[in-house]
Amino acid sequence: MLLSLKIAYRYLTGKKSSQAIHWITGISIFGIAVGSAALLLVLTVFNGFDELVSGMFSKHNPDIKIVARQSKYFKEDTLFIQKLEKQEFIESFSRTIEEVCMFQYGDAQEFGIIKGVDSNYVQVSKVSDGIVEGNFLIREANRPLANIGSVLRNKLGVSVRDFQQPVRIFLPDPKESQFQNDGYQDFLLQVQSVFSFHQESDYNTLITDLDYLRAQLNNSMHLSSIDIKLKSGTDGSMSVQQLEALAGPDYIIKDRYRQDEAFLKIMKLEKWLYYSLFSLTMLLVSFTIIGALWMIVLDKRFDISILKSLGMEDRAAQNIFILLGSLICVLGLLIGFTFAIGFYWLQKQYGLIGVPSEFVIDSYPMQMRWIDFVIVIATVMAIGLLASIMPSQKVASIKPVFHEE
């Protein structure tokens, strides 16, 4: 194998009978370099978005959320609430209820979600950190108040603390499956504050007092979820296990990331779809490797005949060209990784490629991980190996010679 490697290296760097072979080999190396850099940068950009989105979600999500396994609501169990209050790892928890509704402000109308929360919600969700206008309050002097997502506020054109024109909320009749002409009830809420969490709730959510909303829903003993804040230093996974044992099989216990599991799964799916598409372009590049190796085989037929006459087996001769294809891939990978790392550094330092101004960041986020290098190396080397097999098979048909005529 060492001899085959030395000969392969010599064939890669040595003189060829035709300048065209040098050009095709160079094009192969360049194609591998560009392809491997693209593969690595695709993974790096998606890693950056994954970290950015996960950070935004986890910042405002509760540490743990308890929801019903089979239904939209679950009945508030006083005994279960008392058990939660006794858990030493829980700092605070908040009861919430949600319902789909229609908002109306002046002539503007939008469908969305109205969410009722209790007074502990501020401690559990850090909602105060996301307030961009006004002060977060759900009740003042026995009067319920509303807190609206920034995008929903812009769609409706809502003015904060507008005493003359509150937001009108239409709730469907619980007995009806959809809004009917008379199958709804409506009530008014004055907007107290605007929040922006840079997530879906900005687009469709209005938050108000839990007891008031449950009264409007004629549903005074039901909840959509219980949001929990853990004490500092608490092991989240252990807390989830303890709550699963405490709550029983009728409930799902979600940690920060599981609360947005569906969205994060979609992001990961997109990541690997894009990676697969770029990998297909590498398959096209592999044809240049096949062409280069095929021409080198034809160029070195006499050398191969001599090697076989000296006792080299067909397998060893074939290994020369498989290793030659691998060397082309390795050289392309080194050049590609150098370019990708350089671009990564420039993007992190100077933000070469920006994003539209409405985004929460100024430039595309990037995050390199060592596993990405392993994945790209495995992909490129596998493609290079497949591309080397066909030309190497040609070597078996070359006969040894014992004298030159």
Please characterize this protein's 3D structure.
With 405 residues, this protein is α+β, with helices and mostly antiparallel strands. The chain folds into 2 domains: 2-57 and 263-395, no CATH class; 62-255, no CATH class. Helix content is 52%, strand content 20%. It contains 12 helices and 13 strands. It has helices spanning 2-13, 19-60, 78-86, 121-125, 150-156, 201-204, 210-216, 236-247, 261-299, 301-309, 314-350, 370-395; strands at 64-68, 74-75, 90-105, 108-117, 131-134, 139-140, 143-149, 167-172, 184-195, 205-209, 222-223, 225-230, 251-255. Strands 3-4-10-7-9-8 form a 6-stranded mixed barrel. Strands 2-11 form a two-stranded antiparallel sheet. A hairpin with a 2-residue loop joins strand 3 and strand 4 (108-117). Helix 2 runs antiparallel to helix 9, helix 2 (19-60) runs antiparallel to helix 12 and helix 9 (261-299) packs parallel to helix 12 (370-395). It starts with a helix and ends in a 10-residue tail after the last helix. The mean pLDDT is 86.
